[in-house]
Amino acid sequence: MNNTQRALLAVLAIAGTSAAMAQSSVTIYGRVNTTVERQKLGDVTRSAMENNASRWGIVGSEDLGGGLKAGFQLESGFASDTGVTSPQFFGRQSEVNLSGAFGAVRLGNFISDSYYATADYISMHNHDTGTSADALYAYVMRDVNKIGYRSPKFGGFSAEGAVSLSEKAPGAKNAFDLSANYNAGPLGLGLGYTSNKAVEGVFGAFSGEAEQIALRGSYAVGAFTLGAYYQYATLDNVNGTTADAKRHAYRLAGMYTLGASEFHANFGRAEKIKVGGNTLDGTAANQWTLGYNYNLSKRTKVYGYYTKIDNGSNISYVGGPIGADFSSLAVGVRHNF
């Protein structure tokens, strides 16, 4: 038995003990999401089985009385195609929180809420996972060592803010994330802002001091759901120089529901990058996806999609050779538990 298996058994044993306590509730949950795909990167074609952000986790809460609750959430990713667990056992999420009429205070590691409020919200066909995930959104928040506050809901409005402490790590500074959501009836609006003064991998492979602001809108009309976001991102001291970089990006998405069937389409574009006031040719990119989901139950679906990323000649948003395009034809199964 390896260390990971021992740790898992220990966690499950603790969860079982806690669940027996009357004042507490503990739930094990997860998602297994796997596709079989025919992919093409540049001139290279291959068949592959892909994990689509499969995960499992434990969430719990305790009623402390007077409307106050203590809670926690631990979440670990794993590769559903190989069974390999994430090197960071609870790397996806590890937080403790206190909540009440005042809202919620969160401590630990958790995903940026500005991302959830904008890009993730309109990624409806496969929960922004796998090869059809949004490759063009600039995610610049550092998610560890975070102190967060989530407001209560006022009508359809809520807000969240978080700071990621640098802990005096070399070259690091505190990072900040702010978001706001308004959801009432068919209309949804979201706003997100992030500032991180030490980040890598922005706009493909740039590093520097990043800021991003994004706005999302969504609207449901009968069986149709439409969504869009716009993002403006900047990067100072690019790759250790005094130059600055700027980029605009947007995405449009639509879903039509017919019984158990869902028909999806989305299109995203990252405009050319400007560095030091000069536009860099060949740095724009497009991404589009057509997808179909059939919901066998509330927890299980089968689906298929075709996705394509057209990189400019001097950029790569897929981790492959500069300028190489990527496409994939996929079929898959997703089960939530």
Automatic annotation (TrEMBL):
Instruction: Note the Pfam families from the entry.
Output: Porin_4
Mind telling me which InterPro entries this protein's record contains?
Gram-neg_bact_OMP (IPR050298), Gram_neg_porin_domain (IPR033900), Porin_dom_sf (IPR023614), Porin_Neis (IPR002299)
Q: Can you name one GO molecular function term for this protein?
A: porin activity
Which Gene3D superfamilies does the protein's record reference?
Porin
Topology versus the membrane, per the UniProt entry?
Answer: Multi-pass membrane protein
Record keywords: Cell outer membrane, Ion transport, Membrane, Porin, Signal, Transmembrane, Transmembrane beta strand, Transport
- Describe its assembly: Homotrimer.
Q: What is this protein called?
A: Porin
User: Species name for this entry?
Assistant: Comamonas antarctica
